[in-house]
Amino acid sequence: MKADIHPEYREVVFQDVTSDGFKFLTRSTLAASAKETIQWEDGNEYPLIKIEVSSATHPFYTGQNKIIDTSGRVDKFRKRYAK
User: Fold this and answer.
1) pTM score > 0.85 for this model?
2) pLDDT of residue 61
3) What's the confidence (pLDDT) of residue 6?
4) Is residue 72 part of a domain?
């Protein structure tokens, strides 16, 4: 590996702004672009990155996933490949 070409990889807190404060701690290279910090449960301070969609609000994970099909493509597909 070449030296000094890789971004810094460190712990970061991601916060879902559309939920009731859902946060999770993980590692990311986005730490350098974070403008805010937050005190985590372990007492340490980490960079904070705000996101709009996470597993707490994504329709697939919350069970609110719906297929919107205005031109009948889903039915046409199911009819064509039905066994």
Assistant:
1) no
2) 63
3) 86
4) no
Closest CA to 49 of 25, 77, 76, 20: 25
Residue 81 included in any domain: no
Q: Is 46 left (phi over 0), alpha (psi -120 to 50) or beta?
A: beta
- pLDDT < 50 regions, the chain: none
| Residue 31 falls inside a structural domain | yes
Give 12: exposed, middle or buried? Use CB within 10 Å, 0-12, 13-18, 19+.
buried
Q: How many domains does the chain have?
A: 1
Give the domain range for residue 6: 1-57
Q: Does residue 47 contact residue 13 with C-beta atoms inside 8 Å?
A: yes
Please return the burial class of 54, using the count of CB atoms within 10 Å of its CB with bins 0-12, 13-18 and 19+. Answer: middle
The answer as to whether 48 is a domain residue is yes
How far, in Å, CA of 46 to CA of 36, rounded? 9
